[in-house]
Write a structure and sequence with these properties.
The protein is mainly α. The chain contains 3 helices and no strands. The protein starts with a helix and ends with a helix. The model has no long low-confidence stretch (mean pLDDT 91).
C-alpha cells in the first residue's frame, strides 16, 4: 500500500536525520553558534540536504529494503 510506504519512508527519514543532525551539531556547534540563526540554518540545510540525499538515505534504503518493500 502506498500509504504504508509513505509512513515507512517518513519514519526512515527521521531515523536517518536524527543521528546526522546530532553528529553535525556535536562537531560544529561551537562554530555555528557564533553565526546568526538565519545564516546558521542556511549553512546546516546546505550541508544536511545533500548529505541525506546522496549518502545517508541510499544506505538506509538498502539496509531497510525488505521492510520498505513488505506490504
Amino acid at each position: 500500500m502506498k500509504n504504508s510506504l509513505t509512513h515507512k519512508t517518513a519514519f526512515l527519514s527521521w531515523l536517518a536525520i536524527y543521528p546526522v543532525i546530532n553528529i553535525v551539531s556535536y562537531f560544529f556547534d561551537g562554530l555555528l553558534m557564533q553565526i546568526p540563526l538565519l545564516i546558521r540554518t542556511l549553512i546546516l540545510s546546505a550541508v544536511l540536504v545533500p548529505l541525506m540525499t546522496y549518502v545517508v538515505m541510499p544506505i538506509y534504503t538498502k539496509l531497510f529494503k525488505k521492510w520498505l518493500d513488505k506490504e
